[in-house]
Design a protein that fits this description.
Radius of gyration: 18 Å
Number of strands: 8
Strand content: 5-15%
Oligomer: single chain
Order of helices and strands: HEHEHEHEHEHEHEHEHHHH
Number of helices: 12
Shape: globular
Length: 303
């Protein structure tokens, strides 16, 4: 990949990185019509970076065929309007096959989900990502870091071997740890994405992040983009006004170990008539007494 391509990819990561939901029909199948409509809504709202098969897209609840379908559909809808950062993961052969499929279909980059194996060594983390990155040298690689025990020096080791590792989705809920990790890895070497979305974006931007992920953007693209503009301008009071606006919504998503992370987003979309509220186990729909609160929170948001 050329230096110019790296810069194009890096610019796409320094943005609102949208994690689209995966809508389902009443029978539990993928609702491709609703999915396409939601993606067009994001694109029309100004979103320019999409991550199909992210956690808000219920990556771990989808079958391999469904994950491929979600990748293909997103790339088709994005066209030349957005950069696609496809989510991949599971065992190494599966992740490599998913990365190659995304490349063949026209994706620009892949985000590698944090390994869910119960026994993850730091060296094994490097080996896992290196096997994927070396299999698709044409793609930008973005590790998704949720492991507080991982050191920034390990990320630097990975990038020394694989120059296509260009960004990091950092999702450890500790701004001080993020600041240290980024500096140990190389602050200017990678694009740092605040991987815990809008609630953590102001604190992580103050420590060096230049982009953030978002599930909320599915509901109100303008709200997420307003925060990004404020953060790019260094206007933290304005960013915190957005933070206050979305605080309760994100608290509902984060409660009980983020049990309702996807559920709350889909409930908001259902209240707007944009897709069904259905989620797959181990998630579950909100109880009826909580649905009204979600609808009330989002009713006044700009889109």
């Amino acid at each position: 990949m050329t230096a110019a391509a790296y810069e194009t990819h890096r610019a796409a990561l320094a943005d609102v990185v949208a994690i689209p939901v995966t809508p389902f029909t009443a029978t539990g199948a993928l609702d491709t019509d609703a999915h396409r409509a939601l993606l067009r809504r994001l694109l029309d709202g100004g979103v320019r970076t999409l991550t199909p098969n992210g956690n808000t897209g219920e990556f771990y609840a989808l079958t391999p065929d469904e994950r491929r379908a979600v990748t293909e559909l997103t790339i088709e809808e994005a066209g030349d309007r957005a950069t696609v950062l496809a989510g991949i993961g599971h065992d190494v052969p599966t992740a490599v096959a998913s990365a190659r499929h995304a490349r063949e279909r026209g994706a620009d980059m892949v985000m590698v989900h944090q390994p869910v194996h119960p026994y993850v060594s730091a060296g094994g983390w490097v080996d896992y990502h290196r096997a994927i990155a070396e299999a698709v040298p044409e793609l930008g690689i973005v590790p998704y870091v949720r492991n507080a025990a991982l050191s920034g020096r390990r990320l630097a080791e990975l990038a020394d071997a694989c120059p296509n590792v260009i960004g990091v989705k950092y999702a450890v809920p500790d701004a001080a740890r993020f600041a240290a990790f980024a500096r140990d890895a190389g602050l200017d070497r990678f694009v740092w994405i605040a991987g815990l979305a809008e609630p953590y974006a102001p604190s992580y931007f103050s420590a060096g992040a230049t982009g953030f992920t978002s599930g909320l953007v599915n509901v109100a693209p303008a709200v997420s983009l307003n925060m990004l503009r404020a953060l790019r301008d260094g206007d933290y009071p304005a960013a915190m006004k957005v933070w206050e606006q979305i605080r309760r919504f994100e608290e509902l998503r984060g409660a009980n170990g983020s049990a309702d992370n996807v559920t709350v987003v889909k409930e908001a979309l259902a209240s707007l008539g944009l897709c069904r509220r259905d989620v797959r186990p181990p998630s579950r729909p909100l109880p009826k007494d909580a649905r009204a609160e979600v609808a009330a929170i989002t009713a006044g948001w700009p889109v």
